Amino acid sequence: AQSVTQLGSHVSVSEGALVLLRCNYSSSVPPYLFWYVQYPNQGLQLLLKYTTGATLVKGINGFEAEFKKSETSFHLTKPSAHMSDAAEYFCAVSVAAGNKLTFGGGTRVLVKP
Amino acid sequence: DTEVTQTPKHLVMGMTNKKSLKCEQHMGHRAMYWYKQKAKKPPELMFVYSYEKLSINESVPSRFSPECPNSSLLNLHLHALQPEDSALYLCASSARANTEAFFGQGTRLTVV
């Protein structure tokens, strides 16, 4: 079975400050990992993904994430927050056995001017 | 074209009504999904179609009935829903297992 835990349901950052969203996963087989963003009343948009290869992955809007197998983590960062980054962020995991994508509980990001 | 299109965007239905949600993608993806999302919660998987065959059914009540007429279309038929079924229903597609899923904008369903 696979699962995802996002630490912190709410994160508040100042504009221009570092954004750090934490994600830990549990999987019995090598996972595929994803970060999605959701703006109010909209669908989910893929920010970035890790499948195999390079453990530091870069995504859209200046976000990046690092896969650390030893820590079973896939934390999302952005060096400088922008007001437009205010949204809900979901970490998700899938495994090779099937199509099932499992989401973490989500982290709502608030950006203060 | 990297879009998943869902219609309608909003739907209000009574508990005795029958309605359908529609989803379309033209990316050549062979896996399509229905998710249900309640307010302030992550999406919950309902159904997965792989190559037009139902591959995952997450013990969803029979008042929800999925249909995949062809590789581009996915429907969700609704009948005799309950107020607690009110939620955002999201459709998604992916090229194959474990590749990234592309989501539609969702249908906001309200059951009265």
Question: Termini of chain A, distance in Å?
Answer: 41 Å
What's the mean pLDDT score of chain B?
93
Give me the Rg of chain A, rounded.
13 Å
Beta-strand residue percentage of chain B: over 45%
What's the tally of helices of chain A?
0
Amino- and carboxy-terminal Cα gap of chain B: 36 Å
Quaternary state of the chains = heterodimer
Report the C-alpha radius of gyration of chain B, rounded: 13 Å
Global outline of chain A: globular
Helicity level of chain B, as a percent range?
under 10%
Unreliable spans of chain B? none
Written as H for each helix and E for each strand, in order along the chain, the element string of chain B is EEEEEEEEEEE
How would a crystallographer describe the biggest sheet of chain A? 6 strands, mixed
How do the SSEs of chain A run, as a string of H and E?
A: EEEEEEEEEEE
Into which percentage range does the β-strand content of chain A fall?
over 45%
Structural class of chain A: mainly beta
Largest interface: A-B, 24 and 27 residues
Note the main sheet of chain B.
Answer: 7 strands, mixed
Tell me, rounded to a whole number, the average pLDDT of chain A.
92
Helix content, binned percent of chain A: under 10%
Counting helices, strands and paired strands, the structural category of chain B is mainly beta
Please tell me about this protein's structure.
The complex is a heterodimer of chains A (113) and B (112). Chain A has strands at 3-7, 10-14, 19-26, 31-38, 44-50, 56-58, 64-68, 73-78, 87-95, 102-103, 107-112. Chain A has 113 residues and is an all-beta fold. The mean pLDDT of chain A is 92. By secondary structure, chain B is mainly beta. Chain B has strands at residues 4-7, 10-13, 18-25, 31-37, 44-50, 53-57, 64-70, 73-79, 87-94, 102-103, 107-111. In chain B, the strands form 2 sheets. In chain B, strands 2, 4, 5, 6, 9, 10 and 11 form a 7-stranded mixed beta sheet that branches. Chain B has a 4-stranded antiparallel beta sheet with strand order 1-3-8-7, with no helix packed on it. Chain B is globular, with a radius of gyration of 13 Å. Chains A and B meet through strand 4, strand 5, strand 9 and strand 10 of A and strand 5, strand 9 and strand 10 of B.
